[in-house]
Design brief:
Strand order of the largest sheet: 1-2-4-5-3-6
Strand content: 25-35%
Number of domains: 1
Radius of gyration: 14 Å
Order of helices and strands: EEEHHEEHEH
Largest sheet: 6 strands, antiparallel
Oligomer: single chain
Low-confidence stretches: none
Shape: globular
Distance between the termini: 39 Å
Length: 138
Amino acid sequence: MRLIDCLRGDDDLSSFGTVLRFAALVYESADEGEANAPFIPNAFDGDIVFPADRAAADAAFDAWVITLREAEEQFLEEGDEGGFVALIESPKGLMILAGSNIGAYPNPDIDDLLPGAPRELGMPHVRWKRILADMFGE
């Protein structure tokens, strides 16, 4: 697998806001796996956290990239799972969005990294309207 740092042509996270940073583990060949599904709303499950500031957001993003890389064996065993993490400037502020097209992969210690930050872990079928409803009651 290889780690990429930009969205692919079919990936579209724009409904969440402006992507500031992005990382994803993708398969290099069909021998490794065949997760071709783009990262788009409603097509992945994931974790959402709203850091208080950019420094905290960058530290959390970097920690999430480490856990993403550590999930490579999980993805290779599944053969059809891909994962990503994005730092997004959303209408509700900075947001870490980490997802996988099948289930989830482990997250870093959020209580240590972002104590008290609003979060929703393990949200199925992530989309902006669901974040607004589940996290903000809107």
